[in-house]
Every structure is written in structure tokens, then in C-alpha cells.
Amino acid sequence: MNNKITSLFQIKYPIIQGGMIWCSGWELASAVSNAGGLGLIGSGSMYPEILDEHIRKCKAATNKPFGVNLPLIYHQSEEHIETILRHGVKIVFTSAGNPMKYTAYLKKYGMTVVHVVANKKFALKAVEAGVDAIVAEGFEAGGHNGPEETTTLVLIPMIREIVDIPLIAAGGIVSGKAMYAAMALGADGVQIGSRFAASKESSAHHNFKKAIVEANDGDTKLALKQLIPVRLIKNYFYKKVEEAEKKGATKEELVKLLGRGRAKSGMFEGDLSGGELEIGQVASLIHSIKPVVEIISDIKNEYNTTVQKMCNRDFLL
Question: pLDDT category, 49, cuts 50, 70, 90?
Fold first, then answer.
């Protein structure tokens, strides 16, 4: 497929891997890039020296384009940018913050900059900031989410109406059929997180991967809306958050309950009870842990089958 996204990133398929904390290390990013998509290193869970190591290993493992996801709320963002520039990485996806903060600076060095949004306000801010593309992430997504709780089905055409730059759909996309639907709504490509979190190359703990494939419908819910909305698997920690929120906990009380290292203990170290387990609603559609090359092949084949199937449908009269 040759479209705006494949041309922008010089990749084979318009499939972007989400830059998920504790899941998106160099092995996952390089595997996705080698399979024809765009791999992203998730820098939000890395110290600068760790990001340096992952970029070096990713460059050694692939000669294809890859990028770095940079959450703008991360307190060492400027050091991460220095690391990214030093290694000559040419693609950065920014998220969780104001796109005005670094876009112009990054583009001054010839970088391709993409920003993740969940509403029209920030889509317009991203365009104003001069980004090269937008990821519109719906309510179904795992990780950080929008407080408006707008679903992908609504968000994509809503953003498409107001922007002309390349648009990437995210949230609830796990298959070729879902990719086809996103493209029909106006997206030029898709960003997939949860499916790659449960891949063999994901840096997530096996316990977390197992929890993903065992999840049923209703097993995830958006929480911590006073801090940054995040979709979690319902475990002991989630229940403590739910109880606190029902009692009217303040932001400060929720910060104390969250503590430090909660996501690391859950997703990276495998604590399925007390850890923070961030994943999308599509976990209930993931039934196995596969290598990245198989995941992308499955998505590609199902997308092509869906295109053919829809071409054979009768028109509405």
C-alpha cells in the first residue's frame, strides 16, 4: 500500500506500533519495523541512559525507519530529546502534553513529528504547532486517554473534518477488519498498542501478557480521571482506586495511592494484584501471544480479505 503514511515514514504498511511504557523496547520496535510497519521505542518508562541503550540496539537490529514516543509529561523530556538527536533518530511521536512545547525545535533538526490527541481542541493545536501527522486515539485505548471519552468510531471522522494532514487512528484496533474500518472513517493509517503488548518481542512481563490474553469483555475500565485518564485491567489495585474515587478522593489522595513504580511493578515485573495494568478494551479479542511478524501478516491478510469482501457487497439503492 502506498499512501500518506507509508510515504511519510518510508514504510511498507501504514501500521504504527504504539510507544507503550514498559512494553515498547528495542526488540519490539525493531521487529515491527523489520516486518514493514513503524516501530516506536516507548521512552516514557526509561531513564536517558536506558533510552540511549535501546536506540543503539534498535539501530543495530534494523535498517528500517523507527521512532521514539516521547510523553511530554515526562520530567526528563529534554534529556531524551538530546539523546534522540545525538543518535539521529528522525521520527518522534509526542503525547500527553502541549504539542507547542517541542515541535518547532524538533522540526528545526529535520525530524518528522507526530502528536497524539483525543479531541478536536488538541488536534487543532497540533496543526498549529506544525506537526507532520496526528494520531487520534479513541476511548477504547489503553494507557493515557482523553477525559471526553470519545470513541474511535466518532473521533476519527470528527478529526478528519477539521484537519488535512495525515491522520492515524488508534484505540480499539487489533485486526485487519478494524484497520479497514478506521481507513473507511478517514484515517490514513493505524496505531496499534495492545496487540503488540502481547507479542513475543514485547518487553512486558509474561504474567502481564497472559493477563491480556485471558481478559474478557468488561475486564478493563478507565480510571484515575483526576490525574491522567488511564484504562486498567480490574485487579486489586484498580479496586482500591475505584473505592477511593467513589468516596470522593482528592487528586492528592489518588497520587498517594498510585505511589511510585506502580506501572513498572505490574507490566514489567508481573505483579498482577498490586500493579497498574494498562491495556485497551481489545484485550478481550487477543487470544494468543505471537511473534510480531505473524501479527502484522495476520492484519495485512485480513485487511486485504476485507477489502475484497466489501467490494463484492451490493450498493444501497
Answer: very high
Q: What total number of domains does the chain contain?
A: 2
Asked if 124 and 267 sit in the same domain, the reply is: no
Confidence at residue 176, expressed as pLDDT on a 0 to 100 scale: 97
> 317 pLDDT exceeds 80?
no
| Tally of CA atoms within 13 A in the half-sphere of 125 that contains its CB | 17
d(CA 47, CA 67): 17
Instruction: Tell me the residue range of the domain where 220 lies.
Output: 206-282
**Which of these three, 164, 181, 203, is where a domain ends?**
203
Residue 86, in any domain of the structure:
yes
Neighbours of 110 (CB within 10 A): 8
Same domain, 82 and 210: no
Sign of CA dihedral 148, 168, 35, 82: negative
Angle, to 10 degrees, between the axis of helix 292-311 and the axis of helix 26-34?
A: 40
* Burial track 245-272 (b if 16+ CB lie within 10 A, e otherwise): beeebeeeebeebbeeebbbbbbbebbb
Residues 270 and 150 in one domain: no
